[in-house]
Amino acid sequence: MAGEYRFSFGPWNIHEGSDPFGPTVRRKIAFAKKLKLYKKLGFDGVQFHDDDAVPGMDKLTARQIVKEAKDVRKMLDGEGLAAEFVAPRLWENPQTIDGGYTSNDPACRKYARERSRRCIDIAVALKTDLIVLWLAREGTYIREAKDSKLAVDRLAEAVDDMLAYHSGIKIAIEPKPNEPMDHTYIPTTGHAMALGYLTRDPKRVGVNIESAHAILAGLDPSDEMGFALAYDKLFTVHLNDQNGLKFDQDKSFGSANLRRAFDQVRILDKYDYGQRGEFVGLDVKAMRTQKQATATKHLSNSRTVFLKLVELSRSLDESRVEALTADRDYEELDLLIMNHLMGA
Ligand code: GLO
Ligand code: MG
User: Fold this and answer.
1) 49 tagged catalytic
2) Is 175 a residue whose pLDDT tops 90?
């Protein structure tokens, strides 16, 4: 069963533990060393930010960027790993302080478009056709700072620009309702998919659903997945967990609410997620308390929980579920699911 699913995570998921209130607590692990951990932890795919692959890319020419990305491709080959996607990191440069594509400053919007093209070049060099767009700062701190209609027009134009730049790429928009912004323009799966339909080639635009982001929007991640699956738009997922409405926690999958994790696995497995090469992507962070030597357990644990939940999903007595559903005895169905999860 493990072989039926391929798992991925990004190098930022092995991190030094800094948070807004305190410095790092673990030593930095070099990128090449992180790559060596993937297979050992049971992972086959690497998620990238453009500058995970090519650090300092803003100071390099387009040609130099491609050259460096090709060297990273060789490192991946050496480890037997695939690149799952590349995402333009449009939230750290001074020119993205007020957002990239939706910035009020035309020079900053131009920077964001250029950077996105370089990101596509990197994806091509890494041999992946998937671009993830987490629209980090495309929103506002105060409502009056930007025009929301114009912002959506600008987002659609930016996606168009990327689609036109390379006919072979697909774009998975990763919605999130807040953080770092007060409100973002693309807060939910529905918004992300609707944005895709404003573009020149909606077939090539889908979503990356992150469990925690759906929960932060007050929504159920498995229902969000069902919505995207109904439109055949679930290009990838960022599984993790979130304990209520607070900062984005990126907890290990299933650690806050096992039943909510079960429901995500159940819908993915039911509709053959992964059969067309989609990775089971994680976006999880180790707790800050974790010591150096054990700061990758959140990754292997999330994978273990996913696979265990696949087993539980497949062993659920579906005829019993059907009978109880037909009888509208949802209290009994509730107990059936809880007993199943408790191994009772
Ligand atoms: C933050 C996002 C972030 C993205 C990543 C890929 O809340 O989840 O981790 O997934 O940057 O674009
Ligand atoms: Mg994410």
Assistant:
1) yes
2) yes
Buried/exposed code over 83-112 (b: 16+ C-beta within 10 A; e: otherwise): bbbbbbbbbeeebbebbbbbbeeeebbebb
Closest to 100 measured CA to CA, from 168, 162, 20 = 162
- By residue count, the chain amounts to 344
Are 162 and 116 in contact by the 8 Å Cβ rule? The answer is yes
Q: What is the pLDDT of residues 259-317, one digit of tens each?
A: 999 999 999 999 999 999 999 999 999 999 999 999 999 999 999 999 999 999 999 99
Residue whose CB lies within 8 A of the most ligand 1 atoms, among 19, 86, 122, 174, for a mutation test: 174
Q: What is the CATH number of domain 2-316?
A: 3.20.20.150
- Distance (Å) from CA 51 to ligand 1 centroid: 13
- pLDDT tens-place string over residues 211-229: 999 999 999 999 999 999 9
DSSP letter assigned to residue 247: S
250 lines ligand 1 (CB under 6 A): no
8 Å CB contact between 209 and 177: no
Distance CA 141, CA 172 (A): 25
- Contact of 48 with 126, CB cutoff 8 Å: yes
CA of 289 to the centre of ligand 1 (A): 22
Q: Is 7 in the pocket of ligand 1 (CB under 6 A)?
A: no
pLDDT in tens, 184-214: 999 999 999 999 999 999 999 999 999 999 9
pLDDT of residue 42: 98
Give the C-alpha distances (Å, rounded to integers) separating 76 from 71, 227, 278. Answer: 9, 34, 18
The terminus-to-terminus CA distance of the chain in angstroms comes to 23
Kindly report the backbone phi and psi dihedral angles of residue 153, in degrees, each rounded to the nearest multiple of 5, phi listed first.
-55, -45
Q: Given its phi and psi angles, is residue 277 left (phi above 0), alpha (psi -120 to 50 degrees) or beta? A: left
Instruction: Check residue 3 and give its pLDDT.
Output: 75
Residue 65 half-sphere exposure toward CB, CA atoms < 13 A: 22
52 included as an active-site residue: yes
Distance between CA 209 and CA 224 in Å, rounded? 7
